[in-house]
Amino acid sequence: MRMGKKVIPLFKEVFDQYLADTQWDKGLPSEQACRQALFPGSDWFENFPFYAAGFLTDEGIAREISKMTTKAQNFEAHCAKNGLSLSQVYAAAMKCRSLFLKKSGEFSWFFRRMRLVKKRGSFLFLHAGLDDHMAELLANHGVKYANRAFKQNLMHQNLFSFYYGSLANTFRTKYRKADLPLTPRGAYTARQAGIQVLVHGHINQHFGQRVTLKNGLIHIEADITLDAHSRKNEGLDGCGVGVTLIDKKRGVIGLSCDYPQVKVFNPGLKGKRVGAH
Q1: Which residue, 227, 229, 204, is CA-closest to 128?
Q2: Which residue has the higher pLDDT, 141 or 277?
Q3: Residue 41 DSSP label
Q4: Contacts of 220 (CB under 8 A, 6+ apart)
Q5: Domain boundary, last residue among 80, 106, 132
Q6: Looking at the 3D structure of the chain, how many domains does it have?
Q7: Rounded to an integer, what distance in angstroms lies between the CA atom of residue 179 and that of residue 182?
Q8: N or C: fewer beta carbons within 10 Å in the chain?
Q9: What are phi and psi of 162, to 5 degrees?
C-alpha cells in the first residue's frame, strides 16, 4: 500500500506471466481477508506517529500519514483500472515474495548481489544521496562496512527502523524536509572521507543529467527514466536510453534520449566553453 499505484504494473506483469493460467486462487484467503492484509487498519493511523517519532521528523510523519490516506483511498480503483481484483493483487504479492525472497526464487540473486554504495577514487556511486550520519559512518568505517550493514539490516533487522534510518535514506532521499538532512557538517565529513562527488539517480529529470552543489558537495544527478510505464505516465516519448561517462581526461559526459545534445562537464578545460554540445 505504501508504494501505491506505481507497484500495480509490477503486480499485473507478475500475475499475467506466472499466475493467470494456473489455479492461482486455490487456498487463497477471501476477498475481505485479502483487503485486511493489504490495507492499513484505522489503528495504523493512530499508532504511526508514536512508533515513527524516533525515526522521522514531524514533517515526515505528517507526510507519511497524508500519503497513506490518499493511496488507501485510491488503490482499489487503480487496481480495477488495470484489470486486477484485490485477490489477484494479494496472489501477485505472494508470488513476488517467492520470486525475490526465497533462496530458490528466480530473482533471489537480486538482493544477494545488491550493494548500497561503491567508491571509485573520490566518486561515490549510490542510488539517491547522503545524510550527516551516513557520511560519518563512511568516514569512520568505510564502504565495505556500509555494504555489510546494509545487507544485514535488509535481511535480518526490523524493516521499519531500517527503512527510515540512514542506511535506507541513501536510496530514499530527495533532500526534502521530510528526509534525513545533509548539512555543511555532513558534506565536510564526506570530503574528509575522500568523497568529493556523489553520482546518483532517483531525482527524476526530463532533460538529461545535471550537476548540482548541495552544501559544498558535488552531486551528479544521472537519472534516466527507463521503463515504459513510467515514461508513458511522465509524457516521455520512446524508449529510455542514457549513459553517464566519467573519464579523467574527458570529464563527465551525459548522454540521454531526453536531451538533444551531449552534456559535458570538465573543470580542467580552463578558458574553454564547457556545457551542452
Answers
A1: 204
A2: 141
A3: P
A4: 197, 198, 199, 200, 209, 210, 211, 244, 252, 265
A5: 106
A6: 2
A7: 9
A8: C
A9: -65, -45
Helix (H, G, I), strand (E, B) or coil at 275: coil
Rg (CA), the chain: 21
According to DSSP, residue 180 is labeled: P
Given the DSSP bridges, would you call strands 263-265 and 251-256 parallel, antiparallel or unpaired? antiparallel
CATH number for the domain spanning 181: value is 3.60.21.10
Neighbours of 232 (CB within 10 A): 11
Q: Which residues pair with 214 in a beta bridge?
A: 217
In total, the chain counts a number of residues equal to: 277
Q: Does residue 186 share a domain with residue 68?
A: no
The whole-angstrom separation of Cα 79 and Cα 211 is 38
185 and 247 in a common domain: yes
pLDDT class of 205 with cuts at 50, 70, 90? confident
Q: Among 201, 159, 183, 198, which residue's Cα sits nearest to residue 150?
A: 159
**Of 90, 106, 122, which closes a domain?**
106
Residue 272: inside a domain: no
Q: What is the pLDDT of residues 15-35, one digit of tens each?
A: 999 999 999 999 999 999 999
Nearest to 170 by CA among 120, 251, 99, 114: 114
Q: For 52-110, what is each residue's pLDDT tens digit?
A: 887 788 888 998 999 999 999 999 999 999 999 999 999 999 999 999 989 999 999 99
Please count the other Cβ atoms lying within 10 Å of the Cβ belonging to residue 276. Answer: 12
